[in-house]
Specification:
191 residues, 6-stranded mixed sheet, 5-stranded mixed sheet, 39% strand
């Protein structure tokens, strides 16, 4: 009969054997990663068609072999300084559920095998109560991946990156809705 310690060691070895491929890339000098199961392809920068009345981080759309794909500048999404695109800038096409989106990143590094033992939860200060200008970007991190003894990458939650709304945009939408409701009420009273 196996001891509890032996069973834990076997479970840890089994977890190390189960690996998945992860794409690593840089945004503002910081290393990020996502599972390749969410990546459709990686392409070079190409002409982006501007779409009016969108948030600043949505740069527009691209035509990907006949499919219109919205493109997000990840620097702007993380409230970082915008920089000109260069030869290393890439668009990572990701797919989550029925949504396909291009993520503009500073550069793509490589694809690595990562075991579940290398992934840990993100630190507690990355949660909803994060304070500071970059608190929004911290909400997009769902874990930390230890790549080597001196290198860690932040694991992005793509669903949050694609659907997150800042408090300011929610407040602005609420104000717009309130103003519209007041206008309708004034018109109803005037008739």
């Amino acid at each position: 009969m196996k001891t509890l310690k032996e069973m834990r060691r076997e479970n840890a070895v089994a977890a190390d054997l189960h690996t998945e491929k992860y794409l690593t890339f840089f945004i503002d000098g910081q290393l990020f990663t996502i599972p390749t199961s969410e990546v459709v392809e990686i392409i070079r920068m190409q002409p982006i068609t501007y779409i009016p009345n969108t948030v600043a981080y949505v740069k527009g759309v691209i035509n990907l072999r006949g499919k219109v794909v919205p493109v997000i500048d990840m620097r702007l999404r993380f409230q970082k300084e915008e920089v000109p695109y260069d030869t290393r800038t890439s668009i990572v096409i990701v797919e989550k559920k029925d949504m396909t989106v291009g993520l503009i990143v500073d550069s793509v590094r490589d694809v690595l095998d990562v075991s579940s033992a290398q992934i840990s939860d993100s630190p507690k200060f990355f949660g909803r109560n994060a304070i500071g200008k970059n608190a929004v970007s911290k909400n997009f991190v769902c874990g930390m991946v230890t790549l080597s003894e001196n290198e860690t990458a932040m694991l992005l939650d793509i669903a949050k990156v694609l659907t997150h709304h800042s408090r300011d945009s929610v407040k602005a939408a609420e104000k717009t809705d309130s103003a519209a409701d007041a206008s309708v009420q004034e018109k109803a009273q005037g008739n």
